[in-house]
Amino acid sequence: MAKVKLTKNEQKKQKDALKRFTRYLPTLQLKKQQLQMVIRQVESEIEAKRDEIAKYDSSLSDWIRVFGEETGIGEKIRIKEIEKDTGNIAGVDIPVFKKLDFEPIEYDLFTMPLWVDRGIVTMKELAALNAEIEVLLEQKQLLDDELRTTNQRVNLFEKVKIPETKEIIRKIGIYLGDQQTAAVVRGKIAKGKVVKEA
């Protein structure tokens, strides 16, 4: 704790600071709760997407041998770009998945097996799910970082700033009270001397 002047001006300054801290703390606590809630939602979304991928994997187990055929389609599926939007949650800018764009695939319909069309669609859906999971993990990381910062601020206000300011106000109050009492005593002594001399 820094050295503090024991004056009325300093007492007012500290009281104003305490008002600011106590007014700002509930906002920080609300932000913390909101971030925790959103992080839980993002985690459940990630889990849901992973479940979808697991369902795809189990439904594709019959196709595994077929996908093993040498068609060269797997190498032809290339992601062009991941389209993202920007959202804002509790003051944090986060990426939001829009869609996945692929480069066009050209192949000879007469030489490729019949299942290739369905295989391409399935591979694109799986790629989109994986891209969405990546964006959600990025969201979670940004929200976790913001939650950590908000937690630190809440702790700073709750455990350091507010108690420290209250203690300073108490010390200044005691000092000013002692000074006032001493002034009254000095005044009575001076008055007693004046009365005695008169």
Q: Which structural traits does this protein have?
A:
198 residues; mainly alpha; two-stranded antiparallel sheet; 4 helices; rod-shaped
Can you describe this structure?
Belongs to the V-ATPase D subunit family. With 198 residues, this protein is mostly helical. The chain has one domain: Helix Hairpins (Orthogonal Bundle). 72% of the residues lie in helices and 11% in strands. The protein is built from four helices and two strands. It has a two-stranded antiparallel sheet. Helix 1 runs antiparallel to helix 4. It is rod-shaped and about 130 Å long. 9% of the residues are buried.
What is the CATH first-level class name? Answer: Mainly Alpha
Helicity range: over 70%
Ranges where pLDDT stays below 50 over 5 or more residues in a row are none
Mean pLDDT across the residues is 86
Number of separate domains: 1
Structural class: mainly alpha
Distance between the termini: 51 Å
